[in-house]
# Entry
Amino acid sequence: MKTQEKYKVISVTVPSPMERALSEHCRRELRKKSTVVQEALRLYFKVYGKPSPASLIMPSDGEEQASTDYGALAEEWAGSNDKAYDVLAK
# Structure
């Protein structure tokens, strides 16, 4: 199977502090940004399940905040590999 068939290139927009934290984390851990984002998406789908077509419609800010259970991610976020995210809370 060709690489381009196995993987798709996407573009993601994030806040500048998040990108700086991601870049620093990847530099320290010698990891690619793509790998970190893939892991984040795997965790997201593990917690929330894979999306159905109807759920792909973007919620409003209020709807998203009301339905997001960040407690489900507490164990994963407490890991030593996730210290880069701590700077985002400041």
About this structure: Helices lie at 3-6, 16-29, 33-48, 61-67, 74-77. DSSP finds five helices and no strands in the chain. The radius of gyration is 15 Å.
